[in-house]
Amino acid sequence: MAGIDVCELDLFEGSPPCQGFSTSGKRKFSDNRNQLFREYVRLLRGLQPKTVLMENVSGMVKGKMKLIFAEIMRELKACGYQVSARLLNASHYGVPQARERIIFIGVRSDLGIAPSHPLGRFAPVTVKEALRECMPSEIMPLIGKNLARMQLMRPGATHKEKHRASIAVFGKVNGFTLLRLKWHAPSPTILKTVSVSPTFGAGLVMPDENRYVSIAELKRLGSFPDQFCLEGSFEERWARIGNSVPPLLMRAIAQHLNTEILSRVNVAFNTRRAA
Question: Residue 140 in contact with residue 234, Cβ under 8 Å?
């Protein structure tokens, strides 16, 4: 239906849902979303593209979820691909955010070229550097109990709530979390959830102001261009950035695939077709 011949496609990119693997979720092994990679494999068997790219959260290679990761690797290889999977941290690729993602790169075995990943070539970009001359968009102040609690929080500290207040630093999140950024470090991972409730707040707070990071500032921390337009409510726009793979990380992966793998693959492919 797509008009693409088998083996003709240069790159097949797709990412199964991450919610079942995420360490900020319930991580149920039986979550049906954890098996949707099989649809990706079904298409892969039919299309037989030259190269393959998949992305997911780091939780896929932690704890019990390693079993599903191993199964994915077996299935990709059984489709006829050499496959490499690496945890890449976005902060090594020019993104002012310490966000880890597992990146699968595969090359069809008959092409004889090993898969590889881009090297991280950047020193971490700090929040202060990223937000230089950035004008905040809408201001969402902390109010109520959240304001009282965060006034006591130093930069880098997390306020966690489940049923009663507790204070921790970069701990596992159960319930709602407010985190005050540090000026001289990258942002931690931007989660999809933000809550401006006066009682149970969640999201990133400015280092020296008692307000949430604005969407304009969040785009900078996610490596989106200032002119990129997001639609919807404050929470919906935040979620889109929190769910995204940072553009600068994907650009580094795409450039590596194009220059280091596909350029060589296409030479091998055209040579075989001409023989």
Answer: yes
